[in-house]
Amino acid sequence: MDSPASTPAQTVGIVDDDPTVIVMLRRILAHSGYRVQVYTSGEALLDATDAAALDVICLDLSLPGLDGLETLARFKQTGATTPVILFTASAPDVAERARAAGAWACVSKTGGWGELRAAIAGALAHGS
């Protein structure tokens, strides 16, 4: 069995336009042992050549330009199988629409970051 030091860190993509959220998530996820790649818009994720190498994506619902649901739909249209977790500060009815669009989970930013960490861990465990 590999020791944690010899196991490469999994990479979490963060798609959010709020610098405060980006800083917080980067700290939380790095502290949990993940590498983090940041995209500040849905378009940036879709244009990225490294997006296919991500292990999981945390995608904000409210983005300028393409919102999270449209970004998710376009990402899935590329044939990508990377699990996507949609996260939002509002819109409680979004979870059903997010899952219908192919999201692994939909979590609330107001529910605390523990829920997001648990969703990330669940998506990564499911994919391995």
Could you explain the architecture of this structure?
- This protein has 128 residues and is an alpha/beta fold.
- It has five helices and five strands, in the order βαβαβαβαβα.
- It has helices spanning 19-31, 42-47, 68-77, 94-100, 113-127, and strands at 11-15, 35-39, 56-60, 84-88, 105-108.
- A five-stranded parallel beta sheet has the order 2-1-3-4-5, sandwiched between helices.
- The chain is globular and about 30 Å long.
- The protein starts with 10 loop residues before the first strand and ends with a helix.
Question: What are the key terms here?
Answer:
alpha/beta; five-stranded parallel β-sheet; 128 residues; Rossmann fold
Summarize the topology:
Layout: E1 11-15, H1 19-31, E2 35-39, H2 42-47, E3 56-60, H3 68-77, E4 84-88, H4 94-100, E5 105-108, H5 113-127
Parallel strand pairs: 1-2, 1-3, 3-4, 4-5
In short:
The protein is α/β, with parallel strands linked by helices.
CATH architecture: 3-Layer(aba) Sandwich
What is the number of helical segments per DSSP (H or I, 4+ residues)?
5
Low-confidence stretches: 1-6
Write out the strand line-up for the largest beta sheet, numbering strands in chain order. 2-1-3-4-5
The CATH class assignment is: Alpha Beta
What's the domain count? Answer: 1
Overall geometry:
globular
- Rg over alpha carbons: 14 Å
